[in-house]
From TrEMBL:
This is histidine kinase. Pfam families: HAMP, HATPase_c, HisKA. GO terms for cellular component: plasma membrane. It is found in: Cell inner membrane. Keywords: ATP-binding, Cell inner membrane, Cell membrane, Kinase, Membrane, Nucleotide-binding, Phosphoprotein, Transferase, Transmembrane, Transmembrane helix, Two-component regulatory system. PROSITE patterns: HAMP, HIS_KIN. CDD domains: HAMP (cd06225), HisKA (cd00082). The chain crosses the membrane at residues 162-181. InterPro entries: 2C_sensor_his_kinase, HAMP_dom, HATPase_C_sf, HATPase_dom, His_kinase_dom, HisK_dim/P_dom, HisK_dim/P_sf, Sig_transdc_His_kin-like_C. Residues 182-233 form the HAMP domain. It catalyses: ATP + protein L-histidine = ADP + protein N-phospho-L-histidine. GO terms for molecular function: ATP binding; phosphorelay sensor kinase activity.
Amino acid sequence: MMFRWLKRFTPRGLYGRTALILVAPVVVLQLVVSFVFIGRHLSKVTTELAYAELRELAVISDVVDGSMTQGEALARMAPLLHRFGMGARFVEPGAMPDEDFIQWYDFSARVVRDTFRERMPQIAVLEFGSDNMVLAYRETALGVLRLSFSRRRVTVAAPHQLIVTMVAFGVLMTVIAFVYMRNQLRPITRLARAAQAFGRGHHMRYKPSGAVEVRAAGHAFLDMRDRIERQIEQRTMMLSGVSHDLRTPLTRLKLGLSMMEDSEPLLNDVAEMQKLLDAFLDFSRGAVEDEAEPVNPLDLVGQIVADAQRAGMGVELALAEGDSDATLMLRPSAIRRAVENLISNALRYGNRAEVSVLLTPRQLRIRVEDEGPGIAEADREEAVKPFTRLDPARNQDRGSGVGLGLAIVADVASIHGGRLVLGRSERLGGLLAEIVIAR
């Protein structure tokens, strides 16, 4: 619960999360090692070197403090300066800088300065120049003495060598690990693409590969896909066979009843049975009768509305917005059947229907609105189930059905990797049915 806010900053993709898992421990390890190395080992070594240099400076200081003139002091210091590898000269007070000169990133120089301040307060200013020389200004009774010595006497020669080596090998090993991990993730991404394509009604070639667990998941997916395809095929064959086989006896029954007197009620019943069989056949075909192909959804929906208007239906195209040249992989017959079902459903319970189509870079939305009584929010989930009729909630006098209209639409949307959304129309006050398909 307390770390839920971190989800906003974590990558959403598998590659991004894997890279984070690989990089984060390496970075944390390097930071910890660098802190321990700089804070303990490097600081301790630098302090010891500063102590050694301070002892030599103390000898020089004793010589200066025991001299009467600057010339005498320089003459007495000369042998010591040669032995210690130092340089010394007296300067004017105005030549001494006002403050220390240390680069902001120079950790070792700060340790040396603090050690000098603690053990020899007489040293007023320290300068760590770019020429690897250190200038120490000491105020004496004879004037300001400037001592110069090599930086290598008080600091480690290459304090960053360990850190640079560690960072370089850390980056190298991270790259190698990421390349290896990428090869392990490719089978997972291929499995995800195959599953996504199957969810949208496409049959993508897929061969399990990768680690044992990924192969097992791939074989399970192939078995599942085969079972689903067999079930769809068996459902289609069963319903198609039943519907087709019943057409012949119904035709004979209709012919026999037409020769009888007062057979109008019976003929109506036969016609109703014929309508139910047609609904069963439409449901059995679903969206599998045609293959997906590039389709311009704006043109397709416009043609559907134009055909409905020619048939005398009270429907109009309220909105058609999007790239007029864009195409999507759709099953045109299935989309046509779904939109026509929504239009018929809208006109069954209302006097007019409005169709809208919106194509964005991320999704396709086909909306049908009517001015009927709509469907209560509590009944919308039940309404899309096959053979479900909500006539008491709608208007039963306007027509009858077998309860497959919305089920067929939901099935078509699902085959395209989308969904059917039911709501209430803000403009017309009736039902709002929307097919949403991701691009």
